[in-house]
């Protein structure tokens, strides 16, 4: 086993940083994202700045937020698209079974 314990700069405990993996989503059956380490955090205080590294620049943070936001929007569009398709199919069924009787 590799000894990769480090002292957290926030709570001063010896710990092994926990890697947080990027969540993946499915858009039309295609996996988007995931399997990528997003960040590592202290398991005790859950701080991203456990190694005392300066915060990411605002631009990088903004860019990451924008990417995550776009992914959330595309997920919502998939759900809305699915609901719209459901109602469209229901409308067609109504037309076929009610419209001709
Ligand atoms: Zn900590």
Automatic annotation (TrEMBL):
Keywords: Membrane, Transmembrane, Transmembrane helix. This is Transmembrane protein. The keyword Transmembrane applies. The keyword Transmembrane applies. It comes from the Bacteria. The chain crosses the membrane at residues 73-96.
């Amino acid at each position: 086993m590799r000894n990769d314990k480090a002292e957290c700069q926030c709570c001063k405990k010896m710990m092994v940083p926990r890697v947080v993996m990027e969540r993946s989503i499915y858009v039309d059956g295609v996996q988007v994202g995931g399997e990528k380490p997003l960040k590592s955090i202290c398991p005790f205080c859950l701080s991203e700045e456990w190694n005392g590294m300066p915060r990411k620049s605002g631009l990088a943070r903004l860019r990451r937020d924008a990417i995550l936001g776009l992914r959330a929007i595309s997920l919502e569009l998939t759900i809305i698209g699915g609901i719209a398709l459901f109602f469209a199919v229901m409308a067609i069924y109504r037309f076929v079974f009610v419209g001709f009787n």
